[in-house]
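Task card 7
Instruction: Convert sequence to structure tokens.
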Amino acid sequence: MCRGEKFWARFLVIALAVLVVSSALLVQQIHLPSSQPSEDMLQAGDIIFVDLYKGWCATTYWDHTAIYVGDQDIEGGQSSAGMVEATYSGGVVRTPLWAFLERDDPAKMAVRRLRDVPSREEDIQKAIDYALAQVGKPFDFTATATIPWKVNEANLHCTELIWRAYKAAGIDLDFDDGLLLYPDDIYYSSKLRPVGES
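Output:
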């Protein structure tokens, strides 16, 4: 590598570092409305957004998303209210609602719900069916490097799971239609409305 190439390589690394740090500082200054989800307020198909790091995510305010699937049969023939989410340790998993809420307490959370559309109930059921069918798939670890692509369905990050679930129902929740998909891209979708915010 010649001297000029080394200069530009260093310049790009430094510029990227400055961008990530400044973006983290800006995101940390944002204060969005939140709610404390409960089984009573949730409806099947609702999306829960979680701020685990108190605004310190480098690229987005919300750090995690999951879809509420309502009461679904689980092992042993029992029924339990639950979430489907993509996690680092388990890939795409079905998590009981109580465990999801307890695990992330006292994180700030927000709930978004699909607005009224002509075939709303059918669309929500398609999204839930898609999400449940993904259980067992691996997590997309490129998302941890702030590169949450939406180009590979073989492994999924949390936001991609939600986006693909609703996309399977013909609803694109990505508000900016970019190549990357962050939780805020879904949070700000005009196709969703807030639920129970204070």
